[in-house]
């Protein structure tokens, strides 16, 4: 079930969001006035594959998952966006329909900003374009890194790289970022069985680099994981 909540009081939240924080207070209030704060009690699709990109989504609480379908028909999570993270700005300018789905997990709250409003903001504030391009460029680099990861023959290094990739895309900049994916979903992305995933996670955890919890994995040492991948 989806509820629409008031956007009143979200100004402090917006002031901490990349790109949006560059807007004036009046522009931020106008963005909130034109947007909707959506609250989800269960897993729900926000953007369906095959439909136009109609909103910019900013995660207030919970998370969004970008999903695709494997050749075998399984749903694969290719990106996870946590609080403060956003869907793609550039996608709003695509003429082609979305090729993946955006899904809000249960107990999430998401600010839905209409595409027309976001485009108008950029037209009035062209100095925001470099910031948008920088952010989208980082995502593109992450996507290329993922393609490179698929060629990594060592399973544990491949999984370590996937954890870092999900943490980077999620927008979690805390000292201990969380990758909120179940073992089943992570195993599908890693293209291995849950048993093989368990062995790799156990090995990384024994070194103190990560910690597996219910429905999520904490990353305690990004640098150590990256050094392990590069070794």
From TrEMBL:
PROSITE patterns per the UniProt record, alphabetical: CNMP_BINDING_3
Domain Cyclic nucleotide-binding: from-to ranges: 19-122
Keywords: DNA-binding, Transcription, Transcription regulation
Top-rank lineage group of the source organism: Bacteria
Transcription is among the record's keywords: yes
GO annotation, cellular component aspect: cytosol
Molecular function (Gene Ontology), one example: DNA binding
Family annotation (Pfam families): cNMP_binding (PF00027), HTH_Crp_2 (PF13545)
PANTHER family listed in its UniProt record: CRP FAMILY TRANSCRIPTIONAL REGULATORY PROTEIN, REGULATORY PROTEIN YEIL
Name used for this protein in its record: Crp/Fnr family transcriptional regulator
